[in-house]
Amino acid sequence: MQNEMSAQCHCGAVAFSVTLKDGFNTVRRCNCSFCRMRGAVVVFAREIEMTRGKDQLTEYRFNSKQVGHYFCSVCGIYTFHQSRSQPDQYGVNVACLAGISPFDFTDVPVSDGIHHPKDGGAGGVAGHLIYKPA
Fold it and tell me: What are the DSSP calls for the chain, one per residue?
């Protein structure tokens, strides 16, 4: 299982390396208002090291303002965010990882971000997104 990977945005202005927490066993989507619109499949990393374009990142914070979500200011691609539940981890857009596609995952658990534990909800898994290749 590969835990250290390189990643970049669509245009290549932003590049980084990640150390995944547990390979692809942490792959997720989320149903909170922001993630619903963003639509990315993420995997969790223990460490992110910027290799190019840190100055090209733009940050967005919403709701509690506790977590930064980072995007390339050139092409607009969401790259990663700090985990609200576990601030020492990062959710990384799997589409940014070299050689990985969101369609590589046929069953993606969906975290219940609408009822986030830090907002008094139960959290947990709200459901699953299933991809069936034709």
Answer: ---EEEEE-SSSSSEEEEEESBTBTT-BEE-SHHHHHH---EEEEEEEEEEE-GGGEEEE--TT--S-EEEETTT--EEEEE-SSSTT-EEEEGGGBTT--GGG-SEEEEE-GGG-GGGT---SEEEEEE----
Residue 31, classed as helix, strand or coil, is: coil
Its pTM surpasses 0.90: yes
pLDDT digit string, tens, across residues 68-115: 999 999 999 999 999 888 888 999 999 999 999 999 999 999 999 899
Contacts of 51 (CB under 8 A, 6+ apart): 6, 15, 16, 17
Could you give the domains of the chain?
4-101 (2.170.150.70)
- Residue given tokens 């390189």 in the structure block: 6
